[in-house]
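User: Before I run my own analysis I want an independent prediction to cross-check against. Here's the chain; please return only the structure tokens and, at the end, one sentence I can use as a sanity check.
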Amino acid sequence: VILASSICTKSGKALASRQFVEMPRTRIEGLLASFPKLMVPGQQHTTVETETIRYVYQPIGEDMYVVLITSRQNNIVQDMDTLHLIARAVSDICDVGDQQDVVYHGFDILQTFEEIISQGCRDNVDLAKLRTIKEMESHEEKIQEMIEKNKELEAKQEMKRQAKFFDQQRREAAKRGFSDGGMGSSGSMLSGGRMGGSYEPLISPAPEPVRTFGSDSPPASSGNKVSSTARGMRLGRKPKGADILGAMKDEVGLAQDFEDNLSIAENEPLISTGFGASSTPAPVETAPARPPIDMKGVHVQIDEHITAVVNRDGGLEQMEVKGDMSLIISDDDYTNVQVSVETNDAHNAQVKTHPKIDKKKFQSSSVLALKDPAGSFPVSQPIGILKWRIVSGNEDDIPLTINCWPSPTGSGTVDVNIEYELNNVDLELENVVVTIPIPPGAQPTVNDVDGIYNVDRAHGVLQWQIPSIDSSNKDGSLDFNIPGNDAGLFFPVQVSFACKKPYYGIAVTSVTTPDSQDVEFSQTISLAPEIYSVI
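Assistant: Structure tokens:
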């Protein structure tokens, strides 16, 4: 049994020691203090014995020893092998020629002792395993961290979308309130250039005439007096018998009439003329809006999320595809429809139907219908009717393969070559972005690129952007040179894209009523990566 493993000076002072049996501190300090006195000068032995214990030691540096204190019955050959492993591990951790450095890395040294020796016996470890344990790298932990980061990013994007939506609502409410009589006491009204009739403010009992852009009559000067019958909002007073609910009801009705009478272009904002202002509306630059989805009475939505993690040698660490099909009914006449699908399952997907869906009918005829013929789907509310999951360990199943080859040149720079290849030619990937980490403050020199690139100095990444990847351009590359020496700095490589085709071979062939009448339907399909990286 190994009693203790220690590092001490030539005088027997303990720098780091780990006991594997019950032993007080004074006892181990006494044993180490007596150790130098037992050595015989000039002998080549690396062991010293007393009546009860044996010292197995090896010099490290000029004034220190690695010492194993064992029982006399221990196998001395195994103890020597353990001692050599400890000496090599300690030299990897700290500078063995400096006592202060040994003390500074004391906790790391004690942890190494515990990894090599457990309860007084040698564990089956070598130097390579010790280095792996010291690095504490875990692919699962990295994957989990990537998932958490992506979830945080999605949450931030959702917050931005919600903030933009609320801001747009506030602007529309402000426009509506401003148009509803906010200028009643100023002598002018707002108009979008195509006003079909005048509009009376809610509070002013006698509104003024409405001015329109492009009118032949000159605008009123600032010196003109406002009609005495027109009054603005006066705090603290209200018409007799008025209440809040009545005012709100009247306002909603007037606003509806006002919107029906106006025909204002989407990108043509309302602007105030003021007094003496130009009568020409100012052009506003707006981003092109996304084409709206023409949702029918029955809308089918297919969403897939793919997770793919590949190591830098090309081996597949993890691949998973999760998908679901949702149904959105907006017409009360189609609350009991049946969805016929066609599947081409080449990936052995695990498919599950909603508990209210007739599973036997789906398995026999690929029709998604309710178990209860008298039941119905909820209206204007998405409901999942089918889910699937695909797990694969084959590298060929990855839709897009990314290979990153950083090669140090030996002159303080690194040549980096990145290639992509579309394995599934049935997919069409759009807005593909490959994000490569780069050393902080370094400026890459791009030699060749298929697509475009962007250097984000704030985040220390190079973004390679390919607008579209399909069967016509299923492979491409990016070559650049950058100052540095460490090839590991260019990982992990992150990939993002959008796709309007599902990875799982599923398609909606028809939607029918229970009496087999065809129903016109719309559908949207989305495939997006949750995690797609090379680590």
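Sanity check: Residues 180-290 have pLDDT under 50 and may be disordered.
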